[in-house]
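Quick one, tokens below:
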């Protein structure tokens, strides 16, 4: 029997008579229970007191008690006289849970273990301290596998039917999460899925499908060049803008796992990097707040431009390790902070030619983060009252050299997938895609096709510059106070 079937049967949830339900484990909030109730139009209410029960039961037959403690005092007789009381607790299960676990483990984890034991067709007849954590670990892995499969299906459906630029952002968000999940599970991603996704995204972008994103307001920003405008619009008294160079969505998922360990929570959205997705173009646009200028030949000093964005504030630029205490921030109202963890790891990672994944890169990044001062510095900024924004200039992708080295045309040596030109004669000599840079007449980005790079034939690199969602879609987050 499945868990949900047993749960419904024990509590008579599908029966219309009036009842008070006491769920020791509070499964009512689980997605599958909520789905069952919604699909079958079964209403319920949640009560905190005896008076609540009486009032709510007049219009609804199913009333859940928020706490079992209500049935351990004098109200139990009153409730029992007027209502049927149905219990779901440790005695309702077809297996035994060691009593001490019920008082020492979180309800969330107890629910996971119970449901997983049902899923495994009661693999453990007795759950105790010795096997609880093992079952919990297996349960979490099962949940992640389910999530991975769900993401794969949604990516395939959406990328084959793209209708607007927000669809590209959504595909990028989902694929970044899928990529990180695959690392956690030590499993591969379906190559056909990636090829289909890349083809759909490329065709949509090259046909001008994301041009309208640049019309978005600073309040509803969609591109990285509007980040400083968004911050200025919000007028924080003190703020820090932290840029993680080379952080796509999958890298952001890794970083978030570390942030949570340091009690740092965020609210995030996802934006377009500029094309070609390079540091010189996108990062400069972030801190200068400019768009057209970054495509010119003139070098832009991003530190100086950052100061000009906030003329009424005292600003200063920092690198990793330079904020050792609050004393380093005295008198500073606007902080610019760069972290190169992902960029450095991308250049040093070893890539497995059999699956061309980022596994080695993620492991390097984890080791780097474990030994870095990043989280200490973020908490110093937080303690000093700064509104903290986290962003990125571009993501990265595993690319294979196509044998076409056009280094003299590259903007920066580390970018091996995108070239800016004023005319398109290069198309005659190379198998390249052409992207018309919006609002700039006569400027084009020539992009290496598929997941190839301008490098030695067969050489594998973690690089950037192209228009895969891994490179193009980046996070923008605000740290919660």
């Amino acid at each position: 029997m499945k868990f949900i079937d047993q749960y419904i049967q024990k509590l008579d949830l599908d029966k219309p008579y009036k009842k008070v339900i006491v769920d020791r484990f509070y499964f009512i909030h689980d997605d599958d229970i909520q789905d069952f109730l919604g699909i079958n139009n079964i209403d319920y209410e949640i009560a905190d007191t005896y008076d609540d029960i009486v009032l709510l039961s007049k219009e609804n037959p199913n009333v859940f008690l928020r706490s079992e403690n209500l049935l351990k005092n004098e109200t139990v007789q009153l409730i029992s006289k007027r209502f049927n009381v149905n219990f779901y607790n440790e005695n309702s299960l077809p297996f035994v849970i060691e009593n001490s676990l019920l008082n020492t483990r979180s309800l969330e984890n107890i629910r996971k273990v119970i449901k997983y034991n049902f899923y495994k067709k009661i693999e453990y007849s007795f759950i105790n301290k010795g096997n609880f954590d093992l079952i919990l670990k297996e349960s979490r892995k099962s949940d992640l596998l389910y999530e991975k499969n769900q993401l794969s299906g949604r990516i395939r459906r959406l990328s084959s039917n793209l209708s607007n630029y927000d669809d590209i952002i959504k595909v990028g968000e989902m694929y970044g999460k899928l990529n990180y999940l695959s690392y956690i599970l030590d499993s591969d991603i379906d190559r056909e899925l990636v090829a289909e996704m890349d083809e759909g995204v490329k065709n949509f972008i090259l046909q001008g499908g994301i041009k309208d994103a640049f019309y978005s307001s600073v309040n509803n920003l969609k591109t990285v060049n509007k980040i400083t405008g968004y911050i200025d619009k919000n007028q924080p008294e003190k703020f820090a803008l932290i840029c993680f160079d080379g952080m796509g969505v999958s890298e952001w998922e890794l970083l978030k796992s570390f942030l949570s360990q340091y009690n740092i929570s965020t609210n995030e959205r996802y934006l377009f990097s500029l094309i070609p997705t390079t540091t010189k173009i996108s990062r400069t646009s972030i801190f200068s707040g400019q768009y057209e200028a970054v495509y010119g030949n003139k070098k832009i000093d991003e530190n100086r431009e950052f100061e000009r964005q906030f003329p009424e504030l005292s600003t200063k630029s920092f690198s990793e390790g330079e904020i050792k205490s609050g004393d380093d921030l005295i008198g500073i109202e606007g902080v610019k902070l760069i972290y190169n963890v992902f960029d450095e790891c991308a250049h040093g990672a070893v890539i497995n030619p059999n699956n061309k994944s980022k596994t080695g890169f993620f492991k390097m990044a984890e080791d780097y983060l474990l030994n870095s001062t990043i989280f200490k510095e973020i908490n110093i900024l937080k303690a000093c009252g700064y509104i903290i924004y986290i962003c990125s200039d571009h993501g990265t992708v595993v690319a294979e050299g196509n044998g076409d080295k056009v280094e003299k045309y590259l903007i920066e040596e580390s970018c091996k997938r995108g070239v800016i030109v004023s005319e398109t004669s290069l198309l005659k000599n190379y198998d390249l895609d052409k992207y018309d840079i919006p609002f700039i007449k006569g400027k084009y980005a020539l992009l290496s096709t598929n997941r190839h790079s301008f490098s030695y034939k067969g050489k594998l690199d973690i690089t950037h510059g192209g228009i895969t969602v891994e490179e193009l879609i980046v996070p923008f987050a605000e740290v919660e106070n």
